[in-house]
Design a protein that fits this description.
This protein is α/β, with parallel strands linked by helices. 46% of the residues lie in helices and 17% in strands. The chain contains 13 helices and 11 strands. The chain has a 6-stranded mixed beta sheet with strand order 8-7-9-6-5-10, sandwiched between helices. A 5-stranded parallel beta sheet has the order 3-2-1-4-11, sandwiched between helices. Helix 2 packs across helix 13. It catalyses: acetyl-CoA + phosphate = acetyl phosphate + CoA.
Length: 325
């Protein structure tokens, strides 16, 4: 395991954190939960049919010691969760609606986090991103002052660490969205001991081309500076001008970044998704995430192609986010 995750493991261990895994019968989830419990890092909470989970764990030779299992069909505190859900969704759900909705593992798990019975949630091994994120947006909601959640990847290669955003959620962010993504991504960077130097990316560097797309990015830079005057953020930049000092010296000699950015905000989800996959596949970077940011409590979404190591790592990240709330 890399130094980054060793550091996270040391940071979150011993804090009695509880992380919910709604996909309790999934082999990858079970294996990772068993490891997390055995390593005494946190308490995993598995959601699903108790007998099925226990049988699956036995077949995998996974110990469920220090692992909690909740079945929504016979959860002792369901009345409490139903009342809290109806209150949270005021005017949008009756008690009957709530009882039906909370049988869904993702909604049930999200309510456990909202009701302070857990510190965070990891899902998506067998569900779509929408299935994971929708309950979080409806129940946990975004932090005060944050209009939209966004998703980042931490790109890791040996001792190199970079933040790429938004690679997961917002398809066509406007300038205000991009400014918010930059600020939230800087906060995420600090959680990984990265001192943020934020570059707002485009196909133009400092007005070398003019279009509504480039103006959107340059406006986002100004909005981010107004909201966070101490944050080092600049743009609009082509990637080479943000990352290569010799190119920055020619294209943007007066920029505070000086070709040394470590947080890269892409102008669209299309660009961000392509960018992180190129770094992952051609540059041999490990892509850690997506890590959702901007929510009141941490909820994170796995890729359906994940393995148990991905689950383990995203649980560590979710626990670290809980500590930083």
């Amino acid at each position: 395991m890399s130094d980054l995750f060793e550091g996270l493991r040391n940071k979150v261990s011993g804090n009695n954190l509880r992380i919910v895994f709604p996909e309790g019968t999934d082999e990858r989830i079970l294996t990772a939960a068993g490891r997390l419990a055995a390593d005494k890092i946190l308490t995993p909470i598995l959601i699903g049919d108790i007998a099925q989970i226990e049988d699956k764990a036995k077949s995998l030779d996974v110990s469920l010691d220090s692992v909690e299992i909740y079945d929504p069909k016979n959860f002792a505190m369901m009345d409490e969760l139903v009342a809290a859900f109806v209150e949270r969704r005021k005017g949008k759900a009756t008690e009957e609606d709530a009882r039906r909705i909370l049988l869904d593992e993702n909604y049930f798990g999200t309510m456990l986090v909202y009701a302070n019975k857990a510190d965070g949630l990891v899902s998506g091994a067998a569900h779509s991103t929408a299935d994971t994120v929708r309950p979080a947006l409806q129940i946990i909601k975004t932090k005060e002052g944050v209009k939209k959640t966004s998703g980042v990847f931490i790109m890791v290669r040996e001792d190199e660490k970079y933040v790429f955003a938004d690679c997961a959620i917002n398809i066509a962010p406007d300038s205000a969205d991009l400014a918010e993504i930059a600020i939230e991504s800087a906060k995420t960077a600090r959680m990984f001991d990265i001192d943020p130097r934020v570059a707002m990316l485009s196909f133009s560097t400092k007005g070398s081309a003019k279009s509504p797309e480039t103006e959107k990015v340059s406006q986002a830079v100004e909005e981010a500076k107004l909201r966070e005057p101490l944050l080092i953020v600049d743009g609009e930049f082509q990637f080479d001008a943000a990352f290569v000092p010799s190119v920055a010296e020619k294209k943007a000699p007066d920029s505070p970044l000086q070709g040394d950015a470590n947080v890269f905000v892409f102008p669209s989800l299309e660009a961000g998704n392509i960018g992180y996959k190129i770094a992952q596949r051609l540059g041999n970077f490990e892509a850690v995430g997506p890590i959702l940011q901007g929510l009141n409590r941490p909820v994170n979404d796995l890729s359906r192609g994940c393995d148990q190591e991905d689950v383990y790592k995203l649980a560590l990240i979710t626990a670290a986010q809980a500590l930083n709330q």
